[in-house]
Design goal:
Elements: H1 28-39, E1 43-44, H2 45-48, H3 54-59, E2 64-67, H4 93-104, E3 108-113, H5 124-137, E4 142-146, H6 154-162, E5 167-169, H7 179-182, H8 188-201, E6 207-213, H9 219-231, E7 236-241, H10 258-270, E8 275-278, H11 288-299
Parallel strand pairs: 2-3, 3-4, 4-5, 5-6, 6-7, 7-8
Antiparallel strand pairs: 1-2
Amino acid sequence: MGHLIPLVPVGLRPPKPEWLKVRAPGSPNYTRLKGLMHDLNLHTVCEEAHCPNIGECWHHGTATFMILGDVCTRACAYCAIAHGRPAAADPEEAVRVGKAIETLGLSYVVITSVDRDDLKDGGASIFADTIRETRARRPDCRIEVLIPDFQGNEASLRTVLDARPDVMNHNVETVPRLYRMARSGGRYPRTLELLDRSRKYAPDIPTKTGLMVGMGEEHDELVATFKDLREAGCQILTIGQYLRPSSEHAPMVRYYHPDEFRELKQAALDLGFVHVESGPLVRSSYHAHETADAWHAASLR
């Protein structure tokens, strides 16, 4: 793979390349959406995780809703979301999310959450309630869920799938060698198992996953991970650049060039993924509706 950007000493921040620079958000629709989220006391991963695409997505009136609060029970080394002891789950949160989606007139939404290892079902019932509340208020809205691993609890996974989301997403995040460093609370085999269980239990609901690059992984490790994901039946893949939230988080080893993202996309497609989004600014929910459309078109062939 060409166009490598040199490694930098740990602790120094390399200058951001041109392809990672985005406009500061500020469109009227962005401002409207931001106000609505705050008025309804809702959290979005767009804000909590410092997503670089927030201006583009919110300008178009789409957002990823983050349920179950804004404090995570895990402390993944790459993640900007706060961790610690979360507040009790809010039984009315699903209603508020459904109301926001109805008010915005959204046709495609992504619902995700922090990890809630303190809850018996990991928050699966709140995911299911949010899907049902959204369906009741806006029946034509397509719903993608980006779920935690529920500590491997298959009953929790089935609770979410029984509510019939349109896409089931769970991120692998990185290659197995880096799990101990980056995802101390996660388990690589558990992620593969979740994707495989979802495919077998609800084969008509496409499975999706995403990972970051730039944390020190090797090209061969990425391709091996792609193969593992395909063996688990995963059909949709997103690949994006890791951007270090602060000096307290896992170091970023290097930036990937856009050409490298194109090469990774082709490698994944060659392995049989139905759709791949790969680019410096790609995040799990980026162009989510277009990704779902592509899967649906492919399934009709």
